[in-house]
Amino acid sequence: RDKGKTFSSTITSNKQSTYSFLSDQTIKTIDATLSEAILKEKCFEIYKNVQEAWMNFKYDDLKKYLSNELYNTYIMQLDALKLKHGQNIMENITLIDSGVLTINLKGNREEVRMMLEIEMKDYVIDTKTNTETRGDKRVTNHIKYEITLERIVDSKGVKFCPNCGAELKKGGTERCSYCASIIVNNSEEFVMTKKENVGQYTKR
Alpha-carbon distance 55 to 53, whole Å? Predict the structure, then answer.
């Protein structure tokens, strides 16, 4: 039976604090290749890898875990942070809870929306002086996200740029010859397409 879990009411959020998660049986009915355990592990793995790649300016690693649109957004933000000699430090990333909210098939794409609840230290330093410019490394942030993952379930056929619609050449990562967007090759592995912070508080 699907179950609902309640997130701490002390968090300020526009989202409801109670979610109904899909049961393992329901997930397997929608897609027999998936399970609750697989999706929970995959969601946290992708989230953590993205955070670590972001913190260490590992652009190539970000390509593995993000959709084209989100990747292009992230590298612009990272470039701006780098110009200001900033570095976003994220430490002690710990999974508190997670659950599968929805699974939808859209053409040859499978979209999974999840709730992810974590704790971590999150602050920004000036790399020249090694001093904090934002946040506080002495406190722990308790954060709740809604995260959307997506994968290709049928990789056959012609690929098109998701930004301008131009036909892409087969092969690995490239830059669209029409709009110059960096294109991450479509993959049958899940990538993150959206990450929304829906509630947060700090504790010492």
Answer: 5
Residue in 92, 77, 81, 74 with CA at minimum distance from that of residue 142: 92
Which DSSP string corresponds to the chain? --EEEEPPTTSB-SS-SEEEEPPHHHHHHH-TT--HHHHHHHHHHHHHHHHHHHHTT-HHHHHHHB-HHHHHHHHHHHHHHHHTTEEEEEEEEEEEEEEEEEEEEETTEEEEEEEEEEEEEEEEEETTTTEEEEE-TTSEEEEEEEEEEEEES---S--B-TTT--B--SSSSEE-TTT--EEPPP-SS-EEEEEEEEEEEEE-
Residue 129 reports pLDDT greater than 70: yes
Alpha carbon distance 126, 84 (integer Å): 8
Length of the chain (residues): 204
Cα–Cα distances (Å) from 110 to 46, 103, 148, 161, in that order, read 16, 7, 10, 18
**Interatomic CA distance for residues 16 and 153, integer angstroms:** 31
The model's pTM:
0.78
**pLDDT tens digits for range 130-160:** 999 999 999 999 999 999 999 987 655 456 6
Q: What are phi and psi of 49, to 5 degrees?
A: -65, -35
And the tokens for 39? 């999706």
* Tokens describing residue 129: 């002086």
